Amino acid sequence: MNTDIAKGKWTQLTGKVKEKWGKLTDDEVEQMEGKFEVFYGKMQERYGMSREKARREFDALQA
To answer: Which InterPro entries does this UniProt record tie to the protein (predicted)?
Structure first.
């Protein structure tokens, strides 16, 4: 996925991310700016989930 598409998707999903994972601060979500690896790392840190689980959870938001 190219960077522009990733950032566009991120912008569309920001509200859903904040709603589903309330432990993430607004600043953290904004700093991620479509950097999915950073997102997966934050999910590991805040929620104790694996990168693969974080990836699956995020993919489910897009469905």
So the answer is: CsbD (IPR008462), UPF0337_stress_rsp (IPR050423), YjbJ (IPR026042), YjbJ_sf (IPR036629)
Whole-angstrom Cα distance, residue 4 to residue 49? 27
pLDDT of residue 44: 92
Calpha distance 63→44 (Å, rounded)? 22
Q: CB-hemisphere CA count at 13 Å for 27?
A: 0
8-58 pLDDT tens trace: 777 778 888 888 899 988 888 888 887 888 888 999 999 999 999 998 988
Nearest CA to 28 among 38, 20, 37, 19?
38
